[in-house]
Amino acid sequence: MKTDIEIALEAQMKPITEIAAQLDIEPDDLELYGKYKAKISESLFEKVKNNPDGKLVLVTAINPTPAGEGKTTTSVGLGQALCEMGKKAVIALREPSLGPCMGVKGGAAGGGYSQVVPMEDINLHFTGDIHAISTAHNLLSAMIDNHIQQGNELQIDPRQILWKRVVDLNDRALRNIVVGLGGKAHGMPREDGFMITVASEVMAILCLAKDLEDLKRRLGEIIVAYNFNGEPVRAKDLKANGAMTALLKDAIKPNLVQTLENTPVIIHGGPFANIAHGCNSIRATKLALKLADIVVTEAGFGADLGAEKFFDIKCRFAGLKPDAVVLVATIRALKYNGGIPKNQLSIENLDALKKGFANLRKHIENIKLYGVPVVVTLNAFLTDTQAEIDYVKEECEKAGCAFAISEVWEKGGAGGIELAQKVIDTLENKKSEFKVLYDHNAPVKEKIESIAQKIYGASKVNYTSKALKDLENIERNQFDKMPICIAKTQYSLSDDPALLGCPKDFEITVRELRVSAGAGFIVALTGDIMTMPGLPKEPAAIKIDVNEKGQITGLF
């Protein structure tokens, strides 16, 4: 069996100008990065602004498991299938981070015969967007310490500096560090730390900004610290947001690539689905809607994290109204949620499947809270039995969902025709009545509890003394009228990764509240969520290499 990168390297890619032509994009509206990648120029936004919007389809999934769900693979395969059926479709995805690529899972551009190419470029540096975000973020970090060194006119309290540094790799040794050592000339010693770049508020801002001016305004609103009087100090107080914007002037432009079957793909931005909203940029999605009849996009992790934030943060800010949701599951992952260990998932087990189906059922119910029609798709494996497939199909149809088998990993677009047809039928015959879950002007606790109780199924939300102090500070500074971004484990509906399936009567504990004033939301941290992952015992990086022809191997 060929690996993903072996399949990708055999792809018959077309020049990116030909891919652009499928969307009526002229060469003058592209900024080429070689033959197969391009940034989309600002000129195109103005040209298409009066075009009617296409239909928006969100691909999400059940809670992720070691068995895998294939959300990105499904997104790519669905887009390919829609094009194969004669629809003018485009796929809008996030950019992969080097952290996961070198750490746990390797590449992140789909899989099998439903991939985005050039896969190795997309996974490694791409057009430099994430590096630009790292640089803009770290410029602000440097300006904070320099301001203190040069007299501290703003009276920044070094004990209350919130802005860490970033690097786009998993490096646990950098979570907590001390900077400024070496004497007076080298700065003031203080505790600091690193986050992974995709957890940066700069990344979240880039993906929520409407244009360059909005980007600069939002960057200026970033709260970097508090002064000795407990008042917030913003990036604009340091006069940093202009230079940060200059570093991001190209990164704000969406990137155009293609699938193995030459379907157009717009890839732009990649915020963590925990600490940020886990979706590609508003600019990319809104542009895609002006260029195509159907736009397929995705949100990170399971529907409880990715879809909730897509609806309550991204759609709220962008004024988007999704028309349908594709909810991805696998028989294997459902059995894992039913308590079966990974090494036994290939054996038929209807009892475990019925128990694990509760996780899928809860996600169906959650999406219906937003008024959006749902299509459930089973990512097919050879070990799936007909009895297991029949059970899932029957239960999905009982829940009022369309159902389709997906074979896009093995067959590409041809393996997604059934799914594509169900999506088209849903778009044509079921009206979306999209609405957000809560009023962003409601009290902070009310918003948090609305998500925890309605989406996760929690019976109660607890707050640590630190979280309550944070809440007091948020209300005092009038930051409370913002949406909520809950950071919790992706593996469970609860904040405990060990609680699989659909847990009941559990409590969630909020341990800290952070204000992302530039992005425009409040982050509620639960459990042991970290903003800097570590490498596993055998990181994916040890398998990655370059052969004598300069071809990359081992990247998934």
Could you explain the architecture of this structure?
- It is a single chain.
- By secondary structure, the chain is an alpha/beta fold.
- It contains 19 helices and 25 strands.
- The strands form 6 sheets. Strands 1, 2, 3, 4, 5, 6, 14, 15, 16, 17, 18 and 19 form a 12-stranded mixed sheet that branches. Strands 20-22-23-21 form a 4-stranded mixed sheet.
- Helix 7 packs antiparallel against helix 10, helix 9 (212-220) crosses helix 10 and helix 13 packs across helix 14 (350-369).
Beta-strand residue fraction:
15-25%
Based on DSSP secondary structure assignment, what is the total number of beta strands? Answer: 25
Intertermini distance: 13 Å
Task: Output mean pLDDT.
Answer: 95
The gist of it:
Helices cover 35% and strands 20% of the residues.
Short descriptors:
556 residues; 19 helices; 25 strands; alpha/beta
Task: Compile the SSE list and pairings.
Blueprint: H1 4-9, H2 16-22, E1 30-32, E2 38-40, H3 42-48, E3 55-61, H4 71-84, E4 89-93, H5 98-102, E5 110-111, E6 114-117, H6 119-123, H7 129-149, E7 156-161, E8 165-167, E9 177-179, E10 190-192, E11 194-196, H8 201-208, H9 212-220, E12 223-227, E13 232-234, H10 241-247, E14 255-259, E15 264-267, H11 282-291, E16 294-298, H12 303-318, E17 324-329, H13 331-337, H14 350-369, E18 374-379, H15 386-398, E19 402-406, H16 408-411, H17 417-429, H18 444-456, E20 460-463, H19 465-476, E21 484-487, E22 507-516, E23 521-526, E24 545-546, E25 552-553
Parallel strand pairs: 3-16, 3-17, 4-15, 4-16, 8-11, 17-18, 18-19, 20-22, 21-23
Antiparallel strand pairs: 1-2, 2-14, 5-6, 6-14, 7-12, 9-10, 12-13, 14-15, 22-23, 24-25
